[in-house]
Design a protein that fits this description.
The structure is a single chain. The chain is of the alpha/beta class and 225 residues long. It has seven helices and five strands. The strands form two sheets. The chain has a three-stranded parallel β-sheet, with helices on both faces. The structure holds 3-methylbut-3-enyl trihydrogen diphosphate and magnesium ion. The site of 3-methylbut-3-enyl trihydrogen diphosphate has 11 residues, from helix 1.
């Protein structure tokens, strides 16, 4: 979800106003996903690199995460959405951690859509964290190094149990991954749009899905007749 700050600047507003508008787009995207039978949606909300922003913006984002989580939890639970935080929660202030734990607990039985929120997320850190876990288990003799496989690595990531994404959407014109789900996106279709995240409507989402429907996924094989 990129382009909140630029959207705000284009409208003569503070960056923070862009983040507030971005929450509206999050709500729309989740609604569209549940209505159209999407089973898994992952939103990249805050990267490990985002701590490097000015303190005022980081603080405002933390407040916004708490507020949004509190406001949205009842509706998400009612809609059958299971929220799962991916990333390193330990670095968040206690209050934020508390609210993140609460939304996970209160939506734990949701079966309709799994919503993964990437918060303090970095794909490289995720992979390192997974490797450390596997190495520890190997060192403890729980399994042999030969048992490290694509499957056991996948299961050691924050996204364990979640299928690899079919479609990646990045808004606001940048065409890069920025440390997002690098292992999981091996065969994902990429869709880049210049539309900034606050302007990413259901129609824009449908355009992305439409583009996806015209992709020819061969997974390195040949086209099927
Ligand atoms: C995305 O919008 C939201 C977060 C990273 C929290 P940006 O804040 O990156 O907006 P731009 O890229 O500065 O326009
Ligand atoms: Mg950005």
């Amino acid at each position: 979800m990129d382009g909140n700050g630029r959207w705000a600047a284009q409208h003569g507003l503070e960056r923070f106003e862009g983040h507030i508008r971005g929450v509206e787009s999050v709500r729309r995207a989740i609604q569209a996903a549940t209505r159209h039978g999407v089973r898994y949606l992952t939103l990249y909300a805050f990267s490990t690199e985002n701590w490097g922003r000015p303190a005022a913006e980081v603080d405002a984002l933390m407040e916004l995460f708490c507020k949004s989580v509190i406001n949205e939890t009842p509706e998400l639970a009612a809609q059958g959405v299971r929220v799962r935080i991916i990333g390193d929660k330990s670095r968040f202030p206690e209050k934020v951690k508390h609210h993140l734990d609460q939304i996970e607990n209160r939506t734990a039985t949701g079966k309709r859509l799994t919503l993964q929120l990437a918060l303090n997320y970095s794909s490289r850190s995720e992979i390192v964290h997974a490797m450390q876990g596997l190495a520890r288990r190997a060192a403890a003799g729980i399994f042999s190094p030969e048992e490290i496989s694509e499957q056991t690595v996948s299961e050691a990531l924050y996204t364990a149990g979640c299928p690899d994404p079919d479609l990646l959407i990045r808004t606001s014109g940048e065409q890069r991954l920025s440390n997002f789900l690098m292992w999981q996106l091996a065969y994902t279709e990429f869709y880049f749009t210049p539309v900034p995240w606050p302007d990413f409507t259901k129609e824009e989402l449908m355009k992305a899905v439409e583009a996806y429907n015209h992709r020819d996924r061969r997974y390195g094989g040949l086209k099927e007749e």
